[in-house]
Design brief:
single chain, three-stranded antiparallel sheet, 20 helices, about 450 residues, five-stranded mixed sheet, Aminopeptidase, alpha+beta
Length: about 450
């Protein structure tokens, strides 16, 4: 950390020295808007001096932060329209390669095809706090995309560069505990996206007990900003209820008594890094660390939400009528079904059959499982292990998943094989306990009890 801090101080000093070399923005134009900033970007791309380039980059990023919403739109449009690949240069490079295909003309073609904004983003990244500023810039860009889909080309350049800058080799895994500095703990509370942390007491109950762990990835350029974190419970068996894990009154167990590590919450922290994959590296690294720390751990599982299940079921149709979707929807549409014992008994087999259909057979238009959490864990090589009826009875879970949760099992010997099955064939690797809900046996009506006879 001291080395990185010294390096940042050096960059700040170079940028400050360079600021003395560049012409200052005229006072009347200092906050003139997107067009002035675009001109400064052109100046940055043509800059040869390192110190002056750092100062220009810092000024551009500072100016970006002062733009209003409309000016930010205009700036993004300028990145699209004025900082793409040069058509004439690209055309000539294509001609040269077609006439004389060799390594040199291919390299020249590659350079000509790269949009100018990629080099601009690289130069902006060199500024003090440049990486953090660019992550915030992309967050704005992602917010604009639904109404301005033409900006997808600009986002592709950000994502391409971020994938390199945030690759696993640069990430630092840190353990988060109750002794972690408060300014980082505040961010854990803020960024928790699965099971909200209401206050410091709730945070303490997740970090302080001996059977709880938390791990986060950090990047050297965002030293105090977690990128993603996972909360872990050490238990004696695979849980099927989130309530028992989050209960403040529960009795903690000694870590050495645990045979299972449960990943019960994974939260991405930086919206500007959406689509940059960290979770697969995080889980695998945490598994390795926990195995070394606690050799007695045999099971590594998640207790995962199913955020899209209710939405899918509402639109789903069952042409065979075997799954009894109509009856299931009718009961679930009513209020308070989860509090009615008779309805719970009726709903359980119907809902678990629907859930098995959702995970095993439902697909997106490109042939992937419809559930985003399933895509993540299956892509990591996990197995869909169990469907947990009434796994989460919170109001949010009732609304999003009809209280359903699931366990994904990370069996270390099978991870690579499971990953290949999913990646190559789109196969959902699932346990027999999950698959049985679509077997003929699960659709048989329970036999009526025989009436007692008296001799």
């Amino acid at each position: 950390m001291n080395t990185m801090s010294s390096f940042r101080d050096m960059i700040d000093a170079i940028a400050e020295r360079g600021r003395r070399l560049i012409a200052p923005s005229p006072p009347a134009q200092k906050d003139a808007g997107a067009e002035t900033l675009v001109l400064r970007c052109e100046e940055l791309l043509s800059s040869k001096g390192e110190a002056s380039g750092l100062a220009l980059a810092q000024d551009i990023l500072s100016g970006w932060a002062r733009l209003n919403d409309q000016e930010q739109r205009e700036f993004m449009c300028a990145l699209l329209e004025r900082f793409g690949a040069g058509a004439a240069h690209l055309g000539q490079a294509i001609k040269n390669y077609s006439e004389n295909p060799n390594a040199d003309t291919l390299s020249a073609l590659h350079d000509a095809a790269e949009p100018r904004r990629q080099e601009l983003i690289r130069r902006l990244n060199a500024a003090p706090q440049g990486t953090a500023s660019l992550v915030r810039m992309r967050e704005v860009l992602l917010h604009l995309l639904p109404s301005m889909p033409e900006l997808a080309a600009v986002d592709a350049d950000f994502a391409h560069l971020f994938a390199s800058w945030f690759n696993r080799g640069f990430l630092q895994l840190r353990s988060i505990d109750w002794m972690t500095p408060a300014h980082i703990l505040e961010k854990i509370i803020h960024y928790e996206a699965v099971h909200a942390i209401g206050d410091w007491n709730e945070l303490r109950s997740r970090l302080a007990p001996p059977d709880r762990r938390c791990f986060a990835f950090f990047h050297p350029q965002l030293a105090d900003e977690p990128l993603i974190f996972v909360e872990v419970a050490l238990t004696r068996s695979i849980p099927d209820r989130i309530g028992t894990l989050l209960d403040d009154a529960r009795a903690p167990i000694a870590p050495g008594d645990a045979d299972t590590a449960v990943f019960y919450s994974i939260s991405n922290c930086q919206q500007g890094l959406r689509g940059i994959s960290f979770g697969n590296f995080l889980i695998k690294q945490v598994v390795e660390d926990l195995r070394r720390e606690q050799p007695g751990l045999k099971n590594f599982v998640t207790l995962s939400p199913v955020p899209g299940f209710a939405r899918w079921l509402k639109a789903a149709t069952d042409e065979t009528e075997v799954l009894e979707f109509d009856r299931l929807k009718a009961v679930l549409d009513g209020d308070g079904w989860s509090q009615d014992e008779a309805l719970v008994l009726e709903v359980q087999p119907l809902l678990l059959r629907a859930a098995a259909q959702y995970f095993l057979n439902a697909r997106t238009t490109d042939g992937r499982p419809v559930d985003p959490v399933a895509r993540f864990h299956l892509g990591n090589g996990a197995r869909l292990e169990r469907l947990d009826f009434l796994g989460n009875v919170s109001a949010r879970a009732l609304r999003e998943s009809h209280c359903l949760m699931v366990n994904y099992l990370y069996k270390l010997d099978d991870i690579e094989r499971n990953h290949e099955a999913y990646a190559e064939r789109g196969e959902v690797v699932a346990s027999s306990d999950v698959r049985k809900w679509l077997s003929a046996q699960s659709f048989k009506k329970p036999a009526k009890p025989r009436e007692k006879t008296h001799a």
